Amino acid sequence: MTSSSDRSPAVDVPAPKSYEIRTYGCQMNVHDSERLSGLLEDAGYVRAPEDSDGDADVVVFNTCAVRENADNRLYGNLGRLAPRKASRPGMQIAVGGCLAQKDRDTIVKKAPWVDVVFGTHNIGKLPVLLERARVQEEAQVEIAESLEAFPSTLPTRRESAYAAWVSISVGCNNTCTFCIVPALRGKEKDRRPGDVLAEVEALVAEGVSEITLLGQNVNAYGSDIGDREAFSKLLRACGNIEGLERVRFTSPHPRDFTDDVIEAMAETPNVMPQLHMPLQSGSDTVLKAMRRSYRQERYLGIIEKVRAAIPHAAITTDIIVGFPGETEEDFEQTLHVVREARFAQAFTFQYSKRPGTPAATMEDQIPKKVVQARYERLVALQEEISWEENKKQVGRTLELMVAEGEGRKDGATHRLSGRAPDNRLVHFTKPEQEVRPGDMVTVEVTYAAPHHLLAEGAVLGVRRTRAGDAWARRNAREQETKQNGVLLGLPKIGVPEPLPVAASGCDCD
């Protein structure tokens, strides 16, 4: 019999360090943050609760350099964390993304309490840099000039159990005068089609039923591997993957949007009838100044072909108001394209200088008052068109993918929310039968608002899916982990939004 004196003393196991990631900018950054989460969790960190607000052991800023005041926003947030870090020995702050790639050493000079600065090409180094900063007790700044490894090879903590981003390329070969992204993300580099399809198949095996193919200029895919029809072939190949119900992609460029892509969209059943096609301006003069390699006629021609091949397609766009030198006549041309194209939605924003871009030093910068007035006119026109286009959906029977977190008033109205095939948001009456995010419901649209639809009648059908099963398993697993005392914040689970609002997005397509 062992005496109490022979027993080994109890060892206190330190709690795992928690992390929080704050993401700014485009879908590329959102997907990069999923990889940063995967890297940190692979290194033993756990996700802090959503309401931690800087109380995590590691706070990571994944930055965007597109907006004129991006740096002010970053340094303001860093400043608010400085006293908290001073009072918490061991807390670390890391800054990555496009602004880190651009500003490099400036960040540590302006905010010396930052521990790690890393760029867009070496996100995989974050855990190593954090540990090095901890051991050496000094800031680590490491900015790679070119891609070290394709990001898809890194661990990923996906925000949704049933819908996923799949990156098919990184970088961009365009030289738009308002965009700094190519300088920060580098030249376009494509993944091999087999690698992309292998990732999609693995995701489907895990329960994912919707994927969004992601690239800075997604339909230029193939230029790096010498196949001009590679993107349309990739869409068709996705159509052969059993269990993959929905395929989307963002964002294409009108220059590279070819007829074979339209044919693949129309002929591949699981490619959704949705297209986000950045316009930026309807004026040929402004498009030339932007170095956009298409003109109004070409753009409207693409829209016409898409509508002929896919009559129910919902087409959305990006528009810049007040680009340097834009005249009233130029702006009227933009309004003309908006009226002709009948966009379901437009992400409109006022031009602001992007430091480091040619447009920032152009003459004839438009006065703020003029830009604001034009912006308001454009928004009013697009709101009218969006509402009219949504009214055409009333009476249609649609199959929705159930989402979570997309209907802010769902609890009060006893509704649930989902996405139609064309990605319109639909709020519907909660059925008696249990439905989970990822499941499919069939509804009839009864009412239209400019930015959403309502299905106020009884749900016509419920289809439980493998994607819903995947959500249930993940939700149960994380609830159990949370109850056991590990601080894992529940992620916002839902179909990835088609595009962030322009004010915080990349706006570079």
User: What strand order characterises the main sheet?
Assistant: 19-20-17-16-15-18-21
Strand content: 15-25%
* Major beta sheet summary: 7 strands, mixed
Q: How many beta-strand elements?
A: 21
Mean pLDDT: 86
Q: What percentage of residues falls in helices of 4 or more residues?
A: 25-40%
Radius of gyration: 24 Å
Shape: globular
Explain how this protein is built.
The chain is 34% helix and 18% strand. With 509 residues, the chain is α/β, with parallel strands linked by helices. The chain is globular and about 65 Å long. Mean pLDDT is 86; it is low at 485-509.
Helix and strand arrangement:
Blueprint: E1 18-23, H1 27-42, E2 46-47, E3 58-63, H2 70-86, E4 92-97, H3 98-103, H4 105-110, E5 116-118, H5 126-136, E6 140-142, E7 163-167, E8 169-170, H6 181-185, E9 189-190, H7 193-206, E10 210-214, H8 230-238, E11 246-250, H9 259-267, E12 274-276, H10 284-290, H11 296-309, E13 314-321, H12 328-341, E14 345-350, H13 368-391, E15 397-403, H14 410-413, E16 415-419, E17 425-429, E18 440-444, E19 447-448, E20 453-455, E21 461-463, H15 466-483
Parallel strand pairs: 1-2, 1-3, 3-4, 4-5, 5-6, 7-10, 10-11, 12-13, 13-14, 17-20
Antiparallel strand pairs: 8-9, 15-16, 15-18, 16-17, 18-21, 19-20
Helix pairs in contact: 8-9, 12-13
Summary of the model, kept short:
This protein is an alpha/beta fold and 509 residues long. The chain contains 15 helices and 21 strands.
